[in-house]
Specification:
- The chain is α/β, with parallel strands linked by helices and 316 residues long.
- The chain has three domains: 96 residues, Elongation Factor Tu (Ef-tu), domain 3 (Beta Barrel), CATH 2.40.30; 107 residues, 3-Layer(aba) Sandwich (Rossmann fold); 85 residues, Roll (Ubiquitin-like (UB roll)), CATH 3.10.20.
- It is 17% helix and 33% strand.
- The chain has eight helices and 19 strands.
- Strands 1, 2, 3, 4, 5, 6 and 7 form a seven-stranded antiparallel β-sheet that branches. The protein has a five-stranded parallel β-sheet with strand order 10-9-8-11-12, sandwiched between helices.
- The two termini are 13 Å apart.
């Protein structure tokens, strides 16, 4: 299970970065907030009730300075309401946040790093670039966005020798396939952005991924491939649960049994609902487990993953 924990905090300050994007400065109430490295994220509960949406946000900081944390939040009209709630907060307002986790850490032994970002996916790379100062590693950042008015950190990044900007309003397009075709044999590739970008990176970066040099961070689930109803057998409790094609294992277990499964994000990135898989083959859709861990087929995230067979047996 994940080691993250909840704590109280409050909003210190806000700042507009671009249209619909606000920077939030947070202060944890706990003076012993853990140290972290670039690429880390935290979870925020967007509301005061236990069932309020829980969203993940990349930390803009390369490390913790002992006093405040910084994130950027894009207002998503079609989201679950979390971004709208956060945009409505005023300095001094209380909130709930978690300790940090890092699923997007830099590889210290890599000779060079290729960063690919689109839209609000620029946020983890702000921290990574700060962490790269003073290092001998080479890096390149390729950042695509609709227009400067809608993109965060464009002014700060413009003119940087290792940064290339792609302004769609001026006709600039990021050719992911061409970019990855020229990637070095030992380079590590990092990508964060909307699903369209991630799909292009995964399609063009198969060889890089097989060598363990492709690192993806999503801020939304990929489109569901669909699937049939399947059965989950809960070994310890002796229950059998039927999971419909349009629901998660987590929802089915909570709806049909009295078993309590701890969960937070319900989007496959926090690891809280990780459960041992005793038999069957899972269709992994999380971003918490590494490719090797997913291939081992010995654990599964109940909130997003499904079955690639008719029956899964879980240690519940």
């Amino acid at each position: 299970m994940s080691q993250i924990r909840w704590m109280k905090g409050h909003l210190l300050a806000t700042q507009w970065l671009a249209r619909d994007i606000r920077a939030l400065t947070l202060q944890p109430a706990d003076a012993s907030y853990p140290a972290f490295s670039s690429g880390s994220h935290l979870l925020l509960r967007a509301g005061s009730s236990a069932d309020s949406p829980v969203n993940a946000y990349s930390l803009l900081d390369a490390s913790y300075d002992g006093s405040s944390l910084h994130i950027a939040v894009k207002l998503e009209a079609s989201g679950r309401g979390g971004s709208a709630w956060l945009h409505g907060l005023q300095p001094g307002a209380g909130l709930e946040l978690t300790t940090p986790a890092n699923l997007f850490a830099l590889q210290p032994g890599a000779e060079s790093l290729l960063f690919i970002a689109a839209g609000i996916g620029i946020t983890p790379f702000i921290a990574h670039m700060a962490a790269m100062r003073g290092r001998e590693q080479d890096f390149q950042l390729h950042y695509a966005y609709r227009s400067p008015a809608e993109a965060a950190f464009v002014e700060e990044l413009a003119g940087h020798a290792s940064v290339r900007l792609y302004d769609a309003s001026q006709g600039a397009r990021l050719d992911v396939a061409a970019l990855l075709a020229g990637v070095g044999a030992t380079s590590h590739v990092y990508a964060c952005g909307p699903q369209r970008l991630i799909a292009a990176v995964e399609a063009a970066g198969g060889d890089v991924a097989q060598q363990g040099r492709l690192h993806i961070e999503r801020f939304s689930l990929p489109d569901s491939p669909g699937g049939a109803e399947f059965v989950v057998q809960l070994a310890r409790s002796g229950c059998e649960v039927r999971v419909a094609a349009d629901e998660s294992m987590l929802d089915a277990i909570q709806r049909q049994t009295s078993i309590q499964v701890e969960s937070l994000c319900r989007e496959g990135y926090c690891g809280t609902c990780e459960t041992r898989l005793l038999a069957g083959t899972a269709l992994h859709r999380d971003q918490y487990l590494s490719a090797a861990e997913q291939a081992a087929q010995d654990r599964v995230m109940l909130c997003v993953s499904r079955a690639a067979c008719e029956r899964l047996v879980l240690d519940l």
